[in-house]
Amino acid sequence: MLDRYGRNIDYLRISLTDRCNLRCIYCMPEEGIRQIPRTELLDTDEIVRICKAASELGISRIKLTGGEPLVRRICTPLVKELKAIPGICQVTLTTNGILLGEQLPGLMEAGLDAVNISLDTLEETTFRKITRRDDFHQVLKGLRAALSYPSLKVKLNCVPTFQSDEELLQVAALARENPLHVRFIEMMPIGLGKEFAARGEELIKSVLEKEYGSMTPTEEKLGNGPCHYYTLEKFTGRIGFISALSHKFCDSCNRVRLTSTGFLKGCLQFEDGADLKVLLRSGCSDRMLKETIEKVIYEKPVGHNFQEHKKGNEESHIMAQIGG
Predict the structure, then answer these.
(1) Is residue 92 in a domain?
(2) Predicted local confidence at residue 149, as pLDDT
(3) Residues 63 and 89: beta-carbon distance below 8 Å
(4) pLDDT in tens, 281-291
(5) Where is the Radical SAM core domain (predicted)?
(6) What separation in angstroms does the CA of 66 have from each of 53, 96, 146?
(7) Residue 113's pLDDT is what?
(8) What mean pLDDT is predicted for residues 246-254?
(9) What is the CATH number for 55?
(10) Burial of 148 by CB count in 10 Å (0-12 exposed, 13-18 middle, 19+ buried)?
């Protein structure tokens, strides 16, 4: 499925819930948010029906996100159903890791292909400041559990905020000592992220290279999204960067997003898209569902305009409500 700019859209990110067991400073207010009633969330059958239609349009890779997807009990059985859809070759998960240790055996049996674990620091005090919770050791437990499965591809996501350079070095070193890739994600001005200045890729690279030596770009394809990777001598894994502002990648964007309430979005920044839940619950045909998905994909915006500061239909929800 090509959009009007010739980009091949083959990747769908699905948020399962707006709920989360952390309160990260760049994602959710300390007091939490007004949670969406469970009856307004897509159920398993609705998600599977959307994914079947999307797969017929060329979607072949699915990422489950949140909020925190593992707080919703449908996650494991959903992975199994999505893996059974013809044309879907990969189902992956992004999680904060707190519940991962206990749920991973079931997820692996269901066919999970890869997991991204969010961890911004290895210092417990800083973790508490960023997440406003005391679950640091549960996240480490989840990370260790993920690494215990040789067939599971593991990535660690770090969003630089006020961590020290030493803390960023510690996070990067996980890729030296373990078979995983560490990715530094540039802060985007969405929701609470607007309150933080983005720490650019070049700045973080200079910190890493000063300590670990020269970083060599790699052409390896190590995931479904826009991350680009570097190799470092004596590192088992790779260091990656997702830099939506300093290294804009909209011209190669291959994704669309489905919120937990069933709204399909072509671009993270804009509120344009289609309410698939309304269609499903009004008894739409498979043909109409497929045509609506096709229209959203085809009309996917050419790119974000965060740096141009243009106005016009910007997303008003926070990341936990959109899907991270």
Answers:
(1) yes
(2) 98
(3) no
(4) 999 999 999 99
(5) 4-226
(6) 22, 10, 19
(7) 98
(8) 77
(9) 3.20.20.70
(10) exposed
Q: Which two tokens stand for residue 222?
A: 């190590």
- Which of left, alpha, beta for 262 (phi over 0: left; psi -120 to 50: alpha)? left
Residue 271 CB neighbour total at 10 angstroms: 14
Number of domains in the chain: 1
- Would you say how long the chain is, in residues? 324
Radius of gyration for the alpha carbons in the chain, expressed in angstroms and rounded = 19
- Residue 141 CB burial class (10 angstroms; 0-12, 13-18, ≥19): middle
Domain assignment present for 1 = no
What pLDDT is stored for residue 317 in this prediction? Answer: 60
**Across-strand partners of 242?**
185
Residue 5 belongs to a domain:
no
Q: How far apart are CA 311 and CA 193, in angstroms?
A: 18
**pLDDT at site 304:** 66
